[in-house]
Write a structure and sequence with these properties.
21 strands; globular; MT-A70-like; twelve-stranded mixed β-sheet; site-specific DNA-methyltransferase (adenine-specific) activity; 2 domains; alpha/beta; RNA methyltransferase activity; single chain; Rossmann fold; three-stranded antiparallel β-sheet; Methyltransferase-like protein 4
Length: 435
């Protein structure tokens, strides 16, 4: 489970525990069968201290949500006139900062998990668990390049979904580029792509492609939940050669109406730039026939409950915005069940969690969206960089954080009797004693 604490202000989430509950795996290598469990390396969630000290001073004053506090030490800072975007961002922050501060404090103080161990589960220290150095996987940039190359190649149209079943002994011959792939088993499975190994959670499906090849998704399912984290254009992205972005008109061309079931809940991650927020609310959602129903915030904290950067930092904020909308397509039934377009979506909720140190590894939303859709909803994540149990994922880096090098393997025995414990269970993870 990802929800540690639920309250009227929102939820305290354990992203790390959610990831770790999904990866129980059987390696069938006759005559022996080896069973193991994978966990996401703990170092990627090991944020003990804020990235920046909690002081933002100008002269001898510290500003906290509009309140000035006298500081003993002065520090000179260069002043410059705020541009229009900075003024708008400042005004927006004034509107939300008090609710974010008080709501975050309330969730953390009420959590029974808060103590010496921090607010989220932590893998016990051991020989293989104490290493804290963060390293990126060499193959990270390969996926985008493969998708770009695939556009130059003749692709067979309308290829059927390739399904990994319990009867499939090997996944070596799968074509993972531009073709919808589904792991229909109760166990995690390992697939190969260009000599690299990737770990698929049980009952997950994905399409590795860029925005020019989304057709395989259109005939697969109609979704009750669609989340998207677009690569928004900004100055830092333009300076980076390894990170692509999309213009607003390109994002607008994504066929969300064709993918949406009646009453589909659409959730967009938005940066703190007000022009992006306005675009989603005033242009993007209306063009998709999606009505804005709520605005939430994801708040990033350390294991001990401090903001990862000061709430009033003038450079970055410890929160991101989520815009929730309801698809206003034709009413009806989805898979024999009534659509839930009339369910009221609460506004101004907080999602508080320790963030992953890997860029754009967002916390899971499935549990916090329960009750806002029909039971057992079909869910889709667009612009995904990792997979989720029970979800369909799409993007040109959809397998990025599924690379086996991001995980740590524990051997937990062999034989048929041991394999039964590898079946997926929606419960808190059990840390192997061998750690």
């Amino acid at each position: 489970m990802s929800v540690v604490k639920s309250d009227t202000v929102g939820w305290l989430l354990d992203h790390q525990a959610y990831v770790n509950q999904s990866y129980r795996c059987c390696h069938h290598m006759p005559p022996d069968t080896r069973c193991c469990r994978y966990i996401f390396k703990a170092a990627y969630f090991d944020i003990e201290k804020p990235h920046i000290a909690d002081t933002e001073t100008t002269g001898d004053q510290e500003t906290v949500c509009g309140d000035s506090r006298t500081k003993g030490r002065k520090r000179k800072r260069k002043r410059h006139a705020l541009n229009q975007g900075e003024v708008e961002a400042q005004e927006y922050h004034k509107q939300v900062c008090l609710a974010i501060r008080s709501g975050t404090r309330k969730l953390i103080e009420q959590s029974t998990e808060l103590g010496k161990q921090g607010i989220v589960s932590k893998v016990p220290a051991g020989r293989e668990c104490i290493k804290k150095q963060i390293s990126l996987v060499v193959a990270d940039s390969m996926l985008v390049e493969l998708c770009s190359m695939a556009k130059q190649m003749a692709q067979e149209q309308h290829q059927p979904v390739q399904v990994i079943s319990d009867e499939a002994d090997s996944t070596a011959d799968l074509n993972l580029l531009g073709r919808l792939t589904e792991n229909s088993t109760d166990c995690a499975r390992i697939v190969m792509l260009m000599g690299q190994r990737y770990l698929l959670p049980p009952h997950s499906s994905f399409l590795l492609s860029d925005i020019s090849c989304m057709e395989p998704l259109l005939g697969y399912k109609k979704y009750d939940v669609i989340t998207l984290d677009p690569p928004w254009e900004n100055k830092s992205v333009k300076r980076s050669k390894g990170y692509s972005h999309l213009f607003p008109w390109q994002i607008q061309q994504i066929p969300v109406p064709e993918l949406s079931a009646p009453g589909c809940l659409v959730v967009s991650w938005v940066t703190n730039r007000q022009r992006h927020l306005r675009f989603v609310k005033e242009q993007l959602y209306p063009s998709w026939s999606v009505e804005v129903v709520a605005e939430w915030h994801w708040v990033k904290v350390t294991r001990h409950g401090d903001f990862v950067v000061p709430l009033d930092s003038t450079h970055k904020k410890p929160y991101e915005i989520l815009v929730l909308g309801r698809y206003k397509g034709s009413s009806g039934r989805q898979n024999g069940e009534n659509a839930t377009e009339t369910a009221i979506v609460p506004d101004h909720k907080l999602l508080v969690s320790v963030p992953c140190l890997l860029h754009s590894h967002k916390p899971p939303l499935g549990e916090v969206l329960k009750g806002l859709t029909r039971p057992n909803p079909d869910c889709l994540e667009l612009f995904a960089r990792n997979l989720q149990h029970g979800w369909t994922s799409w993007g040109n880096e959809v397998l990025r954080f599924q690379h086996l090098d991001y995980f740590q393997e524990f051997d937990i025995g062999g034989g048929d009797n041991d394999c039964c414990i590898l079946r997926y269970q929606s419960s808190a993870p059990v840390i192997p004693p061998s750690c």
